[in-house]
Amino acid sequence: MEQDLREQLKLIVGQSLSESQTPGAAIAIRINGQAFLETGIGYQDHEHQVSLPTDANFYIYSITKTLIATASLHLVGEGFLELDAPVQNYLTDFPLDLSVTLRQLLSHTSGLPDYGGVPAYSEAIKANPSYPWSTEAFLDLAYRQGLQFVPGKGWAYSNIGYLLLKCILEKTTGLSIQKLLNKIIFSPLSLKKTFVPTTLYDVDELTPGYTAFFSGDQLQDMTRIYHPAWVAHSVVISTAPELAKIIDALFTGQILDLSLVEQMSRPIHNLGKYKLFENLGYGLGLFVDTESSHGKVKGHTGEGPGYSVAAFHFPRLAGYGTTIAALVNRDKSDYGLALVYKIADVIESIPAIRNCGYTN
């Protein structure tokens, strides 16, 4: 019965890829801490010549925020950081007048602007994709725009906020974000292919990621031209099996004390009904659906040139704690998320999974 379900899931994902004209997807499902399905479906190239391997490397884009938040909460637990301390306690040269706290940075309630919708940012990437802005340039953009609202009195997604978190983590620990994430997450979980790239030389093994962002009409592989530092807070490269392992370990207390995970999972701001979510909120580095039919669903999405990715934990999917990661090698809005929920709906609908022998 388990094998039948695995084959059905592969078939459904394959059909979705064909319908959406997407080359491939890497999928990983963990049920009660055990790997249930880890597979590549479709192709790694747009010409459909090379099958996508199970351990294909992808940028996980904004799922990196969940890892930065995890590292932040780890340091809170160790007493090195305080969630409600102002940023100026850690970055003394932070120039904005009003106090912004770490909790507000983590929850996107700081009022800091974002660069995602700024025309100059998109124009600069298209003009010089291999030559990213410096940290100072990103922060200068934020300083010139100023706070968008009084901290704690609104919600707006801000990559700049997570850049400041990265700066705080590095200054507090004396470690680069690469070394810090390796120490707290990657090494303890014995991950082999998950890391933080800093140059184009580091991304040689990325699976091709297709986008029309640079040409305007034709799809092209962005992996050899798009510098990872265009993601200001840094971007992690991972595989579907290793990403699923991280998210699953987070929610089962293997990385953080569960009391800290509960703080991360508590929505600071609710957005209500949004796309596939019944009541979407944002906690500390996590999207949280508090009214899903699958229970309190927690995780993050990632979007950027070449890829659409998502990884979510379902607390009681068909009666079991289940983590699903979907990494897609074309940048179609929320497509990774759509695959995660499509897989979850299939698992929930099949009684056989309830008798698979997983320990509750």
Automatic annotation (TrEMBL):
Gene3D superfamilies: DD-peptidase/beta-lactamase superfamily (3.40.710.10). Transmembrane segments: none annotated. Residues 15-337 form the Beta-lactamase-related domain. It comes from the Bacteria. This is Beta-lactamase family protein. It comes from Pelatocladus maniniholoensis HA4357-MV3. The lineage of its organism: Bacteria, Bacillati, Cyanobacteriota, Cyanophyceae, Nostocales.
